[in-house]
Please model this.
Amino acid sequence: QRFVANYDEAKVPEFNLPNPLVLPEGGMVASAREWEEKGRPATLKLIEREMYGRMPVGKPAGFKVVLDREALDVLGGKATRREYLVSFAQDKGPRVRMLLYLPKEAKGPVPAFLGLNFRGNQCLEKDSWITPELGFIVGARKGEDRRAKAEAMRGSAAGRWPVEMILEQGFALATACCGNIDPDFHDGWKNGVHPLFTEGEPGPDEWGTISAWAWGLSRLLDALEGVKEVNAQQVAVIGHSRLGKTSLWAGATDQRFKLVISNNSGCGGAALSKRAFGETVGRINRSFPHWFNGNFKKYNEREEALPFDQHQLIALMAPRAVYVASATGDRWADPVGEFLSVLHAQPVYDLYRKGALGVAEPPAPGETVGMVTGYHLREGKHDVTPEDWKHYLSFFQ
Ligand code: GCU
Model:
């Protein structure tokens, strides 16, 4: 049966959003302390069990970080560029190559952005110094010449990663290819980090690929904690699309992230599932069966049965900063549903007396709303652009 996306507000089903302050087992959270003691753990467990899946806890015993390469004068002498190799079970299993840019002028440890990329670090800049990604990349085709492909893609994501603009404002930038952590295809979890920590097929409550990527982001933050030029207490985690779903889940599960940014993350990210506008739970689970866990499949075409919605994922960031961005031409990701998640996370932020969005309707394109929770709608298609980064950089000041 062919999937036909609904893009008509009049056809959005009626739904009740769970109150984020009501505990799954009953009772209400009335203070920040109760949220931390009961509300947050219960909400996190519920979303973990029913959607993204349980991941291993903390830094594994075999965790290892090695500085592999360094270029001292890049971007016209304004930055240092390094590549680190991060592994999780000594030298067994996947090895992640983390590219790190540090501003040269810094007087002390600097805040940083950390985000995964789709097709390799060499996509950030044309410069041939960056090691090309020869492992699995998103969109890879069987039998293609990986080296030729990697070389052809040098600098292709420069618009998504305006390195100079980020560095000029005093931030460091760290990135790695998501496929180094877990390749983006379904093979019964035999590839990537899953077999290092889970024997056999993960259970229906255990981690899928988005959880594996989020877990990987936490490990990259562990690696940044060991870099003296970076202030690891001031790290923003950022991601676009499937990697925006991932940055939200990483921010929810790891409270060390100071700011959590979702760029056009859509269904399974910032968008409310119960609106079933654009991409739906059933559609995403059928197209990408490996992203979420087995339990999440119960809600295919049954969004009304979901005991939570994505505003509760946003609420898990409280009292930290969280920023959601949509694009006008990205109806598949449901811009209105992305805005509403941030809006309806507010009761939890209110417990901390933390600033509200200040509006009840989505703002006009180009405008930023909010201080601790933030949102903007960009004119244009599904993408991350320097314009989005302008909002992120000023929000993170
Ligand atoms: C598909 C998918 C989205 C996802 C996007 C991406 O469009 O349906 O859920 O966000 O890919 O990651 O680019």
Remarks:
- The first helix runs from residue 32 to 52.
- Residues 77 and 271 are 41 Å apart (CA to CA).
- The longest strand covers residues 92-103.
- The chain has a mean pLDDT of 96.
